[in-house]
Amino acid sequence: MTLLARDEFGLGIQVARPGASQRLAITGTVATSSAVSQTVCRLSSNVDCYYSLIGTATNASTFLPAFAIDNAKTVSGDTFSVISDGGTGFINITDMG
To answer: In 10 A of CB 32, how many CB atoms?
Structure first.
């Protein structure tokens, strides 16, 4: 049976256990992750970038601001495509399950 985690006031909070993590270098050239294995992935980057789960990332893909955290619904085997919005840096992609 799965139990919902609770905060100090007894209210339910949404949490997931971090799993495998990937770190990709981000530049003006598209980078592609290895396949993920969970149904949710957490993304964080130190540079503004765009990412896509469908095809190749472009500046019309989902925007991820530097130092923001995003969660993406995935299917085991999905890969992320990532491209910078002008700088160079890294993106961390963590399986959450």
So the answer is: 13
The CA distance from 44 to 68, in Å, is 6
Instruction: Give me 26's structure tokens.
Output: 């981000």
Instruction: Please report where in the chains the tokens 């893909």 appear, as a residue.
Output: 61
DSSP tag of 2:
-
The pTM score is: 0.83
d(CA 39, CA 74): 5
Per-residue pLDDT of the chain (97 residues; tens, 9 = 90+): 556 777 788 887 777 888 899 999 999 999 999 999 988 999 999 999 999 998 999 999 999 999 999 999 999 899 999 999 999 999 999 998 7
- The two three-digit tokens of residue 39, written as one number: 């149904």
- Rounded CA-CA distance 63/2 in Å is 33
Residue 88 neighbours by CB distance under 10 Å:
11
